[in-house]
Every structure is written in C-alpha cells, then in structure tokens.
Specification:
mainly alpha
Length: 263
C-alpha cells in the first residue's frame, strides 16, 4: 500500500491533479495497475484453472487493491482544498485505512475456502468499488455546487449556463443537447458541450487557488491554465455566434422551476 501511495504522491504534485475526485480516480487506476502485475504472477505460477483464477481475482482482489489505493488518493485529493494546518493527518489516515482494509481482506479470505471464499472476496471487492463510486458521485455533486458559486462572479457566464454546467451528464440535459443537433448541427452541439466543460474547469481551478496550501508553482500553472481556458471559451462563443448563444441562454432559464425540479 505504501508503494502504491508513493506513485500517488508523485501525481498530486502535478497541476492536472485538482481535487479529491481526481485522487479517487488516480488511486483506482494505480490499484488496478498493481493488481494486473500481481495477477500475471499468480497466473504464471498456477498449475491449472488459469481462466477461473483470473476471473475470480479480477472481481475480488483486483477491486480490493483499487479500492484501497482510491482511499489514499481521496485523502491526498482533499489536500487541494485544505485550509490551515493538519495537512499531514489526511494522508496518514488514508494510508492507515488502506492498510487496514488490505489486512482485513487478507485475513478474511485466508480463513475461508470454497464457494464461501469466492462470494466473500467478490462481495468485498465489488462492495468497496461501489462505495468509491458513491464517494466520487458525492464529490462531483459538491464540486458542481462549489464552482457554480465561483462562476457566478463572472459576468460572461449566465445563470442558465451555470445550471446547465451543474447538470452536465444528466439525462435531461443530454437529451436537450441531442435535440439541438437537429437545429444547429452536431458541430455546434459539440462546441456547446466543450464550452460548458471549459467553464466547469475554470470553476474548479479558481476554487483550487483559494486553498492556503497551494504552492507558487501550482498557482502559476493554474493561473496560466485559467487564462488559457478563458481565451478558449471566448473563441468558442465567437464560433457559436450571437444567435446560438442567445438561444442557449434561453434554453436553460433560471426561473423555470418545473425544469429544475425535474433535473
């Protein structure tokens, strides 16, 4: 677990590592990568039943590795918004929980056998992954609310657009964007989606700059990226044109309570 955590410590120093959802995703990937190497070792030393061994490990031990590393990634990602002291505590808690999860898993699977072993191992792996997915969803929801407040300070982002950004990925917004392709063409709809995602990234980056723990190197990198993305957004708005932009702002009216209740 410490070896996997060292890889994440490298990632957290990069400007692309922005908040705890990134930490969860990076951690999950690092855990899966470790599990793949480990699985090759077990398969190479197995005398038979290679396919069943591979499938059972993918659904159990591999997901346990991913879950444990994701917990460390989350603890590191939370440092992005940490205000004041106590910055050392979060990573220590993260690695402590990850090691505990791994110890519990090993002891449980070593004390069982047969179908009970397989069911419990898969239950821990799949259940842990579901828990990480729930944490990611909660993190995304919180982040959408947070950067919506940040973007409200920008005069060139309408209230309707902020609502659309918050619901990007939801079924109703996606269906509306799909319907727009018939009126404006797929190229313009792709630009609209890109504009919303660009605005969301600006909000995330601005929130990161408010943290007391941001180094000068990261601050310069994020400020440069904000300026770059703002220029990109102005370019997209220019490509869409006044007519399409006016339509988009009318499409997501702020006071349409029925629409937002449905969302």
């Amino acid at each position: 677990e410490i070896l996997k955590a060292l890889v994440l410590i490298y990632f957290i120093q990069q400007p692309s590592f922005r908040y705890f959802v990134d930490g969860a995703i990076y951690g999950f990937i690092v855990g899966i990568a470790f599990a793949v190497v480990e699985n090759f070792f077990y398969i190479s030393t197995s005398s038979g039943g290679v396919l069943s061994l591979a499938i059972s490990r993918v659904l159990s031990t591999s997901l346990m590795h991913a879950m444990a590393s994701a917990l460390v990634g989350i603890s590191l990602g939370l440092l992005r918004r940490r205000q004041g002291g106590g910055s050392v505590i979060l990573p220590l808690i993260g690695i402590g929980v990850a090691i505990s999860v791994h110890i519990v898993y090993n002891n449980v699977v070593n004390s069982l056998g047969g179908s009970a072993l397989l069911l419990v191992a898969i239950g821990i792996g799949v259940g842990g992954s579901a828990a990480i997915a729930a944490l990611i969803k909660q993190g995304l929801d919180d982040e959408k609310q947070r950067f919506s407040k940040t973007l409200s300070q920008q005069v060139d982002v309408s209230a309707g657009e902020r609502k659309a950004i918050q619901q990007l990925g939801g079924g109703l917004i996606e269906s509306k964007l799909e319907e727009l392709s018939a009126s404006f063409g797929e190229d313009n709809v792709a630009l609209i989606r890109r504009m919303l995602v660009t605005q969301a990234n600006i909000g995330i980056l601005k929130n990161n700059l408010n943290s007391a723990l941001v180094s000068d190197r990261l601050r310069r990198a994020w400020e440069a990226e904000i300026a770059e993305r703002q220029a990109e957004m102005r370019q997209i708005r220019g490509e869409l044109g006044l007519y399409v932009m006016t339509y988009i702002q009318q499409l997501f009216p702020t006071r349409d309570e029925a629409l937002w209740d449905a969302l």
